[in-house]
Amino acid sequence: TTSNTSVVSPQCYNYTLINDPTRSVNVTTGSTCDQSLFNSSAMWVRFVGVGGTQIPTSPVGISRCGTSATGWYSGQMPTGVNTTINGTVCYNYASNNCHWSNSISVTNCGSYYVYELSAPPDCDLRYCTDIPDDWITDTTITPIEGK
């Protein structure tokens, strides 16, 4: 007898929930630093709530998300369930969309993403969140009208 069971990535059920409305790309006040929340060892997180469920996949204006330098994901999102992709978070500051950066991993858990995040390279840098139009976003594919 063969079984067609898929193995769920462990990070899809073993993560830290972050429900923080001040991380939203729409928040224009505050100067919070993520270095106190994330330390040098990476941790898997899932963003939930009205602040957003995904790290944005395009640059966010400075002085948003409750910080000065706004963090956005500049890589490709994983499209297959239980797949993980390594990518880069860039921090927009001083007319440079990627003034600072750090490496992260993103896993597609089916109906949500989890992110393996560590402390940003400097203070006043913060991971932003947004509520996506679709729950899956692939920044390498341009949608075709009418398809």
Automatic annotation (TrEMBL):
Q: Which Pfam families match?
A: D8C_UMOD (PF23283)
* Bilayer-crossing regions: none
Query: Signal as a keyword?
Result: yes
Ranges for domain UMOD/GP2/OIT3-like D8C = 48-129
InterPro entries, sorted:
D8C_UMOD/GP2/OIT3-like
Q: Which UniProt keywords apply?
A: Disulfide bond, Signal
Q: Does the keyword Disulfide bond apply?
A: yes
Q: Which domain of life is it from?
A: Eukaryota
What name does the UniProt record give this protein? Answer: UMOD/GP2/OIT3-like D8C domain-containing protein
Origin species, per record, is Adineta steineri
